[in-house]
Design a protein that fits this description.
The chain is of the alpha/beta class and 504 residues long. It is built from 17 helices and 19 strands.
């Protein structure tokens, strides 16, 4: 099985946490001769190191006291055979695991330079291997391990982490303490781990690669999946018309926040909704009757007060810049909207009102489709928690919200998590910090509503399917640019170009 790059993501990847990976590892060890898996890991690591640093003359391997250190020692043998000047700093324990002890003996026989000294002098073209702890870490590195992490992070050359960057919790994507390796590459072994792709995982793991070591993981239920469809949609049929693509209503834009509703409406229109209505709340309802940039948008003050049949026929995005005025609109929308996206102030209103929470839960129990799009602080409010707790385990927080409210949840952030009740959550693989700009969340809410308005009839797409695709496209529209500030209005245009089959 060749080493596979994960990015750019071209298919859905299964993700397995530490417990599932350990079970697969034990099954693999039972099915192969002694030490074979570690030897395969060593070969894979050496091959990748040679590929990503072809001009390296020197290689430093920081090897820890367990089997991750053994993987590094096994790689050292092949790198030395390839003509590299290899130095291993081995922070050994009192008793090595059997596989690691075998790798150490083999490396010593091969003449690899092994000691406990600190990092040698390396140049920009050289490479270092993080083989300190892998997925075995359960607490923050300290002592000599922490010092080795600091030395790795101070290097001018690429760092390749074996299995996981030391100090990163690969279940959650959060550092275990104050020091964690920031790798340029990570070779994940056996499985891909969810924490490499959400929270701080992307910053610490860098470019992620996978080598299954010849072990079939397809029989193990994944803890999450990575991916999202970013392909252009099927062409529209010639006889279709605006009524074929559904109505979207944006309810929000209270005084001082009209722009949020307009961004959401423009995004829904760019996504292809047949008709897009804008219902500005409060005094804003009298402040605008036309969007001069996109006059196709139709302003309908008090749209949310219409009859239940009209609400049931539409896809509604509620909350974008809604302020306190959104509280009055939420009960009928939750009760009657056919498809409902709740964002921003809509979520904050629900978090502060037990009656609205009960109404939303009742909507979920009767199977009416809803998508909630919180950022971490909004998610914390909905859970009665705090941002730190949400970010500490983003998968768990998203699943908890989905189960509590019977809704699809898009927990935004690095590696946005899309969760639905009784379903395997998805981590989005697209996007970057360019999206960390005011208004991009409003664009996502409207974009999702616009795609969802068309996803009925014969295509069979669920609310979760639409959310996964909307988030993936939203992130992909920012990917071609180097991370930096991206204006939300420009994001709308980039999304529209992508949907039309052009480059963002």
């Amino acid at each position: 099985m060749p080493i596979e790059p994960v990015f750019p993501v071209r298919h859905v990847w299964p993700l397995h946490g530490v417990a599932a990976t350990r079970r697969l590892e034990q099954a693999g060890l039972a099915a192969t001769p002694p030490h074979v898996l570690m030897q395969r890991a060593g070969v894979a690591t050496a091959r990748l190191a040679l590929a990503v640093a072809p001009h390296a003359r020197r290689v430093w391997i920081a090897a820890g006291p367990g089997n991750n250190g053994g993987d590094g020692l096994a790689a050292a043998i092949h790198l030395k055979q390839a003509g590299k000047d290899v130095r291993v700093s081995h922070l050994s324990g009192k008793r090595l695991p059997d596989d690691a002890a075998d790798a150490l003996a083999r490396a010593q026989t091969a003449g690899v330079a092994i000691d406990a000294s600190s990092c040698p002098r390396l140049g920009a073209d050289d490479i270092a291997l993080d083989a300190l702890l892998g997925i075995g870490a359960t607490r923050a590195p300290d002592g000599a391990l922490a010092e080795a992490v600091r030395q790795l992070n101070a290097l001018p050359c690429a760092v390749l982490a074996i299995d996981a960057p030391t100090g990163l919790d690969v279940d959650t994507g959060q550092p275990l303490g104050d020091v964690a390796v920031q790798a340029r590459h990570t070779l994940s072994l056996l499985t891909l781990k969810p924490g490499l792709f959400t929270a701080a995982g992307r910053d610490h793991a860098g470019m992620v690669w996978l080598d299954t070591l010849g072990i079939d993981a397809s029989t193990a239920a994944p803890d999450a999946r990575l991916g999202g469809d970013t392909e252009a949609p099927q062409p529209r049929r010639h006889a279709q018309h605006k009524g074929s693509f559904g109505d979207v209503a944006i309810v929000g834009g209270a005084p001082g926040m009209t722009g949020a509703a307009l961004l959401a409406a423009r995004a829904a229109h760019a996504a292809g909704s047949g008709r897009t209505y804008v219902d500005l709340l409060g005094a804003s309802a009298d402040a605008a009757g036309i969007d001069i940039v996109h006059p196709e948008l139709m302003f309908r003050p008090g749209w949310w007060q219409g009859d239940a049949q009209r609400l049931a026929a539409a896809t509604v995005a509620c909350g974008c810049g809604g302020g306190d005025a959104v509280r009055q609109a939420l009960p009928p929308l939750i009760a009657h909207a056919g498809r409902l996206v709740i964002d921003a102030d809509g979520l904050n209103a629900i978090a502060g009102d037990t009656m609205l929470q009960q109404v939303l839960q009742a909507r979920g129990k009767r199977g009416a489709p809803t998508v909630l799009t919180p950022h971490p602080l909004e998610a914390a409010r909905l859970l009665g928690s705090d941002t730190r707790a949400v970010q500490a385990d983003r998968l768990r927080a998203a699943r908890a919200l989905a189960e509590r409210y019977g809704a699809v949840v898009v927990l935004k952030g690095s590696g946005s998590v899309i969760a639905a009740p009784d379903a395997v959550p998805c981590i989005n693989a697209t996007g970057n910090a360019s999206l960390g700009s005011a208004g991009t969340g409003d664009v996502l809410a409207g974009w999702l509503a616009g795609l969802w308005s068309q996803a009925h009839g014969d295509d069979g797409a669920t609310a979760c399917d639409v959310a996964v695709r909307a988030v993936a496209l939203h992130g992909a529209a920012a990917d071609p640019a180097r991370p930096g500030p991206m204006r939300a209005a420009d994001l709308v245009e980039a999304l529209h170009r992508r949907l039309r089959g052009g480059n963002a």
